[in-house]
Request: fold
Amino acid sequence: MKRKLTDTAIKKAKPKPDGKPNNLFDGGGLFLQVKPGGKYWRYDYRRDGKRGSLYIGDYQDIGLELARERHREARELLARGVDPSSHKKALKSLKADLISNSFEAIAREYHNKYLPTWQPSYAAKMLGYLEKDVFPWIGSKPITEIEAPEIVKVICRQDERGAGGAARKVKQHIQQVYDYAIAVGMVSRNPARDVKTSLVLKPRQVRHFASLKEPGKVGGLMRSIYGYEGQFTTCCALKLAALVMLRPSELIHAQWSEIDLDNALWTIPIKRMKARTHVKEANLSSHYVPLSRQAVEILQDLFPLTGAGKGGYLFPSVRTRSNPMSNNTVNAALRRLGYVTVHGLATARV
Reply:
């Protein structure tokens, strides 16, 4: 087949004086259509007595040699009885299906759907884990084609760099995406559930918080607390911590709206407690803390200072009432008394 066009002729080509397209033919049905808005490659052909036309691409993206290569491929399809234009549409549709069914597409769909129900910090962390540690490796793969060994490789990358906690979070988020995919009928099984982190990841290093186990030493701690001479609110927090057995974060975030002094009851929303993620997200239950006579007395003494119409936190920050005091405030007070951390007060042993 004799070719007619040259790069020089193409660069000089302009639309017709009346603005209509100027078609420059290269041979075999391939031509360059020159319009006021640009130059475009097309291939005109006949199949089963009917005229067909295939758009090959923009000249700015596809040069002369590449256009001729695409033209040869289209002619080969036509010789095998395949319509080039229909074939291109089918490939485009298949590519769109693969993209829409990719793990990343389903994961983002899941994230966007449940975003309004999650805490902003949780939603941001989840997306961060997926974008950094999952999408680069399996994000483009169809969600139906990913198997357990590939998920193991993904989470082991974090484990190898010493981030075992992150590896477990990544596995958890992959599992959540697959649970969603099952619910909407995309897949029939969850390969992440076949991955046992206890078998493929390094054992967790358990770190125990310092705690007092001997009754005599506990008595010494309580005498030290009741003799504390620092800030009154800090002293109240120390006293209450020993009576309610809560974690430091649960204690310092306490609000007066949660306290019922008349019935000696503290009602804490479950989202502030340590619980499984789906339980905290639902926020349909509460944690109830019965208050002892001593705890009620402490709160009654504290109420005129931080309650009594002021509302908000029991233990506000000294800088602003809109934030609670820091964990470090309570821990620093304990260190001055000769003890290590308040976290040990959250565990009662009988």
